[in-house]
Design a protein that fits this description.
Blueprint lengths: L12 E11 L3 E20 L6 E4 L2 E5 L3 E7 L6 E10 L5 E26 L7 E6 L2 E6 L2 E6 L5 E3 L13
Antiparallel strand pairs: 1-2, 2-7, 3-4, 4-5, 5-7, 6-7, 8-9, 9-10, 10-11
Length: 170
């Protein structure tokens, strides 16, 4: 969806398109494409339930009683990451704090991919790898490959060649 209309005009958003892609059984890709009228500070926030966090490269790993949750920015160039309690408001406008993974950059056009993966507490969540070449993006998840076209928004599993069968003819 395009959420630009949900922000005030002075935010200068020309486009804020977000795609959520669920890959069974335990991966969610959050693909954000943000365009503004001029270069400005941009921030994306994710709110994990657990505060029990460790960092592994670009990934934040959260441990709960029965599950492990991984949040990773797959496009970290020119973006900073932090994890902390940040001020927010509840549905009634009352102040509160939310534990937050925040990614920030300064730009007028930001394409960002965040991978959210999860597993049982005793198992490591899946790791997602991304290779980008212009608008063709290739995701690898659990030995499967998925293709995304950043211009059209099309996403599909890569065709896997079938093994050729020997010809039964004499």
């Amino acid at each position: 969806g395009d959420a630009a209309g949900a922000y005030p005009a002075d935010a200068g958003l020309k486009r804020y398109r977000r795609q959520l892609i669920f890959i069974k059984p335990a991966t969610l890709l959050v693909i954000d494409d943000i365009m503004t009228t001029r270069s400005r500070e941009l921030e994306l926030r994710f709110h994990p339930e657990s505060h029990a966090m460790s960092r592994f490269g670009e990934a934040f790993i959260f441990k709960g009683k029965s599950a492990t949750f991984r949040v990773e920015n797959l496009t970290p160039a020119n973006a900073s990451a932090r994890c902390e309690d940040l001020p927010a408001k509840d549905r009634d406008g009352k102040p509160l704090t939310l534990f937050t993974v925040a990614y920030q950059t300064r730009s007028d056009h930001w394409q960002n991919v965040t991978a959210l993966t999860w597993s049982a507490a005793t198992v490591k969540p899946p790791v997602v790898k991304l290779q980008r070449q212009d608008h063709q993006w290739e995701f690898k998840v659990s030995n499967r490959t998925y293709l995304f076209d950043a211009q059209t928004g099309e996403f599909h599993r890569e065709n896997i060649p079938t093994e050729s069968k020997p010809n039964d003819a004499p």
